[in-house]
Fold this protein.
Amino acid sequence: MSLGDYLRLLRAQRGGVTPFDIETALPELTKGSYRQMEQRYRAVGDDESLRLIAGYYGQPFEELRWRLDWPRKALSRALVQALTTDAAISLYLWNGQEKTGRVKWWDLGALELETSDGPIVIQRHAVARWDQRAADDDPAAADDADSDD
Amino acid sequence: MAENLWALREQKKLSVATLASRAGLPIGLIMEYEAGQRSIDARHLTRLARALYVEEADLRLRSDPRPGTGQLERQPRPAAAPAAAGPVQPAGQTNHRSDPAAGSPQPTPASGAARPPRERGPRPPRVQTPRPPAPARPSQITHLQEVLARLGRAQAQVEAELGKPLAEIDRPTASKLLTQFQTELREGRSAERHRAYLPEAVDQYEMRYLTEVQEAGTPLHFTLFDNTTLAGAVVGFGPYNITVREADGREVTVNKLAVVSYVKMPAAPPAGQEPAA
């Protein structure tokens, strides 16, 4: 889950306070920066702002900081690469599951993976991290290559 | 060599009214200048020169009267001159009408004979032939096809009813058909669950996927963030939530933010058949 998605989730858990409420509560934050952190697909925010927000939500700073390195845009790049190279990708989900397979489609909300257990649609905000495997490492791809021979 | 104002104006093919407008001076004043009744004011000289695109030195400060202007009164008034020809302007008087023709009276012919009025017969009534309607716009045709697809109606059937292909209908017909089909669509869909507009390129693939499973009635099995599960047929969805009908008929709307993943469940066997082992 990217920082933006995680902040949205925290805000929902707080009973749906608005970004305006948060910026009012944290006057040290630059105006509009919180909203940008939630809405932008690229990584937005510096450590100082993240510390303030972590304090507001009562979360460890590191819990927010590492998510900054896994923005939605980086996931899009990984999915595009996996789709174009027909390589498998491993997705580590927020609930502890790991799903590996080929990308059938993806958009800004979800993606479909063709896994060994069958197709599955995964919400993008459920993806915590990912690992792009080379086509050679993918057993399914190797099988395909063998069958071509 | 400096020229008369009226001569320069005629060289430039300007009417008195146009010159007056360009120079920002009253027409009457210009006519007085042209008739040589007064010298051109130094302040007006610049304006007139600019309006005529000449140098100030090209304008004579006091114009000579235009040949023929002062002789009108000496010309015998033609007896048969119709009243419609207009009054003859006596010498020394100015015409303050804004009509350019009046401001620059043409020299009368040497013969002095007035031009007989043209005889105009009654104007024949204009026959307005109705224009054929324009062909339908491509956007109308595309829109019609989309609406027909949403209504689930075959284009061929509509074309058979119309007696011509959609591409050949005219604009009013296309407009009328669009109104009719959109009304049908609105009335027919009113009983259905409202579906929010999903912008393309944001979640178009998921939208297609969910549309497909909803139309096929394929049940989905959802895994939520708290590792609970939910299963049922999709009865509606939006950008942020999905509504499913569980096996017991209960409808549950789940926020997508709470969903980790979902998979298609195998279709239930028809009633009376046991599922294969």
Remarks:
- The interface with chain A takes residues 201-206, 209, 223, 225-227, 239, 256-257, 259-264 of chain B (CB under 8 Å).
- Residues 138-189 of chain B form one domain.
- The two ends of chain B are 117 Å apart (CA to CA).
- The first strand of chain B starts at residue 219 and ends at 224.
